[in-house]
């Protein structure tokens, strides 16, 4: 068992913080640990209290650690799309081998060359996604490794984020006593898990409806065309119910989960129940029709804002339709409502792994599969030292102590670690 690779993802959301431990055995992923706790210190997808965020991360990590009896050391962190920009990039290098055979080192060099672009001082490069390669005069190559040539070119998409928001996220993870092995844009990770190759080529929108925000990502011609975040999610529905019915927020959440329906046409008006009135000892009667009316209005608004964001990206037609994921997608009738608003094909998506077969885990599991695929394509092993046998109770994590810096690795497989340390040096030195 200890010869297998382990990958740990950290998904810091507005409503919950999720930690997933995956074991890679014979190219097959098994989910062996899950941590899911209420998130504190975030608002509309952004950190507003770093100390509370650190506490939430520690709680989620400890919960996952207790499931497997191991101590988590390294994590793959998801970055929200609420501050990202996409821009095309281009790199050119000469093939280094004497026999002119293109190797993985050449692919890394041309990628590094493509990242040498001028960006605003308040932004930092998150990732560079290769779109296609060109070897001498041969274009549209998906993977040039093993081919022969003199000149290697790469066209890609450069993903940048606001330095301040990245600083806060990465600082919170560091203060929680964790080392970051890789970072990934959340929509990219989720899309790699639940979207097929044909869907990404035809043109499709991935809509992730969480508690505090809704992320929208459009894929076309096999690549990410645009991504943005709408600051509305399931928490807004809970607040609406609380305001309209004058009932406590905690009770509103229970009502939403138990009686909520997204499409008025399918509700049950005769189903009655009682709810408390805030500030009094009185109870009032209510039916599912009223709850559905509130929920449909807010969800319709969110879907209309999704359409506006997609139009702003310059996308006119989505032949692949829409894919909905995220915790709110469990709401009965939401796919019917989405189809009514979008006037297009709509389907729900969730991970197909035991223990995490719920739409709220799509991004968390996607971070693992995306980072694993990326590492294998570059000949790296991100999961080599992700977890360790617990030599002390897993509940006792360091309170404020930062992880000790490792010596520079000499193994070529640890190039990713060096790159990440260089990236984090901007913030932590």
TrEMBL record:
GO terms for cellular component: cell division site; cytoplasmic side of plasma membrane. Pfam families: FtsA, SHS2_FTSA. InterPro entries: ATPase_NBD, Cell_div_FtsA, FtsA/MreB, SHS2_FtsA. CDD domains: ASKHA_NBD_FtsA. Residues 393-417 have a biased composition (Basic and acidic residues). Keywords: Cell cycle, Cell division, Cell membrane, Membrane. One of its GO terms (biological process) is FtsZ-dependent cytokinesis. Residues 7-194 form the SHS2 domain. It is found in: Cell membrane. Coiled coil: none annotated. NCBIfam families: ftsA. Self-interacts. Interacts with FtsZ. Cell division protein that is involved in the assembly of the Z ring. May serve as a membrane anchor for the Z ring. Belongs to the FtsA/MreB family. This is Cell division protein FtsA. It comes from Pradoshia eiseniae. The lineage of its organism: Bacteria, Bacillati, Bacillota, Bacilli, Bacillales.
């Amino acid at each position: 068992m200890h010869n297998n690779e382990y990958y740990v993802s950290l998904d810091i959301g507005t409503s919950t913080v999720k930690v997933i431990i995956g074991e890679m055995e014979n190219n097959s992923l098994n989910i062996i640990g899950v941590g899911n706790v209420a998130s504190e210190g975030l608002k509309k997808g952004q950190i507003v209290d770093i100390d509370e965020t650190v506490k939430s991360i520690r709680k989620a990590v400890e919960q996952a650690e207790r499931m497997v009896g191991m101590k988590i050391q390294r994590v793959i962190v998801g970055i929200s799309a609420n501050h990202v920009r996409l821009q095309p990039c281009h790199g050119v290098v000469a093939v280094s081998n004497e026999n002119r055979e293109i190797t993985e080192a050449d692919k890394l060099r041309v990628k590094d060359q493509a990242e040498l672009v001028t960006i605003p001082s308040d932004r930092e490069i998150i990732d560079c996604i290769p779109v296609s390669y060109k070897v001498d005069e041969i274009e549209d190559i998906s993977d040039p490794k093993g081919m022969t040539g003199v000149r290697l070119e790469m066209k890609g998409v450069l993903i940048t984020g606001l330095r301040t928001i990245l600083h806060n996220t990465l600082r919170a993870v560091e203060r929680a006593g964790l080392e970051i092995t890789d970072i990934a844009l959340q929509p990219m990770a989720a899309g790699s898990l639940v979207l097929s190759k044909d869907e990404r080529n035809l043109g499709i929108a991935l809509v992730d409806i969480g508690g505090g925000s809704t992320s929208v990502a459009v894929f076309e011609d096999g690549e990410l065309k645009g991504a943005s975040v709408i600051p509305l999610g399931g928490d807004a529905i809970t607040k609406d119910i609380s305001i309209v019915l004058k009932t406590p927020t905690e009770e509103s959440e229970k009502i939403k989960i138990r009686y909520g329906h997204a499409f008025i046409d399918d509700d049950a008006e005769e189903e009655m129940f009682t709810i408390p009135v805030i500030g009094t000892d009185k109870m009032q009667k209510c039916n599912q029709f009223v709850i559905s009316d509130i929920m449909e209005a807010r969800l319709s608004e969110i879907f209309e804002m999704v359409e506006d964001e997609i139009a702003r990206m310059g996308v006119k037609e989505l032949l692949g339709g829409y894919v909905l994921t995220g915790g709110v997608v469990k709401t009965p009738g939401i796919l019917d409502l989405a189809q009514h608003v979008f006037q297009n094909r709509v389907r729900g998506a969730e991970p197909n792994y035991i223990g995490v077969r719920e739409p709220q885990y799509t991004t968390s599991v996607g971070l693992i599969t995306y980072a694993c695929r990326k590492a294998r394509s570059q000949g790296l092993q991100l999961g080599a030292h992700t977890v360790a046998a617990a030599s002390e109770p897993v509940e006792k994590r360091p309170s404020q102590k930062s992880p000790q810096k490792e010596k520079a690795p000499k193994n070529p497989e640890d190039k990713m670690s060096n790159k990440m340390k260089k990236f984090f040096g901007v913030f932590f030195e």
